[in-house]
Amino acid sequence: MAELWCEMVVAIMGMIVLSFGRSGIAGKTSTFVRSEWPSLDIPPDNQAFAIPKGRNAPQQVHITQGDYDGKAVIISWVTTEEAGQIEVKYGTLENQYAFSAKGVVTTYTFYNYTSGYIHHCLVDGLEYDTKYYYKIGMDGSAREFWFHTPPKIDPDASYTFGIIGDLGQTYNSLSTLEHYIHSGGQTVLFVGDLSYADRYEYDDVGIRWDSWGRFIERSAAYQPWIWSAGNHEIEYMPNMGEVSPFKSYLHRFATPHVASNSTSPLWYAVRRASAHIIVLSSYSPFVKYTPQWRWLQEELRRVNRKKTPWLIILMHVPLYSSNLAHYMEGESMRAVYEDWFVHSKVDFIFAGHVHAYERSYRISNIYYNVSSGDCCPVPDTSAPVYMTVGDGGNQEGLAGRFWDPQPDYSAFREASYGHSTLEIRNRTHAFYHWNRNDNGKKVAIDSVVFHNQYWASNLQRRRLKKRNS
Ligand SMILES: *[C@@H]1O[C@H](CO)[C@@H](O)[C@H](O)[C@H]1NC(C)=O
Ligand SMILES: *[C@@H]1O[C@H](CO)[C@@H](O)[C@H](O)[C@H]1NC(C)=O
Ligand SMILES: *[C@@H]1O[C@H](CO)[C@@H](O)[C@H](O)[C@H]1NC(C)=O
Ligand SMILES: *[C@@H]1O[C@H](CO)[C@@H](O)[C@H](O)[C@H]1NC(C)=O
Ligand SMILES: [Fe+2]
């Protein structure tokens, strides 16, 4: 009976859809598969993981947003011999550091491995839209970097985000990272599964986190990476006596969770330029009444589309994916949150986990109830677009098997490595591209102009009103 219902819904949906999509609903499955390099991690002594010269030189430098509105950064780095200098010197002129901020130092053990001295330093009270130079470390081994603060929170602020997921540390990962660096992206939205160090055993787990920290520095020292955690961050390894989830991740990657009143660094929100970005944890309790659920309910109330029109959610496990890998793993979170996402008119939900690229149509499946049997997604102009960008290039390789035929909710899918960019132009328009790693080149394959879910429909309504009055 349920199956019959489902087919009827599909038939009805097909009819609705004909008058719905500009280019028709028929999703595209790109049969192109580009796997440039074997799925093997780069050897630890490779230049890609070069250790900076000098005694106790800072390494694994990365920054992230440090507050709710973009006037602060958290600068993190590792020293190996001693904690050394805990200060960051910074200023707006090269080689002249008018200010300094003191950080904190932590270490942890993982099996027999002891981490280096992990520094986290909050630098706040920054001016918007300004280039800052910063210096860490001492004497001959001091190192200098720079970053740009975002424009102030404004509905028409232009800003370009990159989206990267499931990166790892292979030659494919390096290709993705280098393409991203040349994409014009100003901040990375990282959708989980960072180093894949958990594919190693014993002391190599910690060692591969260190190599990954040096690997991403070429981008992450110069612009914020907004972090979310994936299953490869859990590192529940009782065989090695390691049973405390997210231990390496939480020690190494700070997030500004307190600024959004979150009680856990695993879920939080930041506002940047014209975007409100909500980070969720697929692997922390999220059902009704849990801390994450209560926090998300409050955070969605804090969203002000008049100030930040673009509402973006990051999570690791996709809620809609038609890849056979990890098929339906997101159903539990979808059942809890999809209704909120549709009613909040979320613009985009970015996820990783599945090692391929996929973009959905605006669809929802919020009318299902276990008695009524409405079980299929239907076109819904209020619904978010779901993007899976788990194609960073890690050692597990591509997820090349898709559900056949392509479900109606799926607009475009391809199993190649790459990353996405989201160029927000103003309150109504954003230009989105998924960029395939193609024989050493970056090629924009899936390009879409998106209209803002709050402003575009409001403008339409206003125009209609005008015409009718
Ligand atoms: C870890 O340390 C213990 C105690 O020193 C030692 O017996 C063991 O061999 C070490 N394990 C590895 C894999 O190095
Ligand atoms: C967090 O909670 C405090 C105290 O209730 C409040 O003053 C502050 O505005 C809240 N922060 C945000 C981002 O809502
Ligand atoms: C579930 O569906 C049935 C049949 O349509 C309806 O009577 C009932 O009210 C629904 N329950 C909820 C909680 O929506
Ligand atoms: C927003 O950007 C789009 C694309 O560049 C442009 O066509 C539109 O006129 C802009 N809207 C406003 C209000 O500036
Ligand atoms: Fe994953």
UniProtKB/TrEMBL annotation:
It holds the Pfam family Pur_ac_phosph_N. Gene3D superfamilies: 3.60.21.10, Purple acid phosphatase-like, N-terminal (2.60.40.380). Keywords: Glycoprotein, Hydrolase, Signal, Zinc. It catalyses: a phosphate monoester + H2O = an alcohol + phosphate. Its cofactor is Zn(2+); Fe cation. Its EC number is 3.1.3.2. The keyword Hydrolase applies. Residues 383-443 form the Purple acid phosphatase C-terminal domain. The keyword Cell inner membrane does not apply. Signal peptide: none annotated. Residues 58-149 form the Purple acid phosphatase N-terminal domain. GO terms for molecular function: acid phosphatase activity; metal ion binding. Residues 160-357 form the Calcineurin-like phosphoesterase domain. Belongs to the metallophosphoesterase superfamily. Purple acid phosphatase family. This is Purple acid phosphatase. It comes from Ziziphus jujuba.
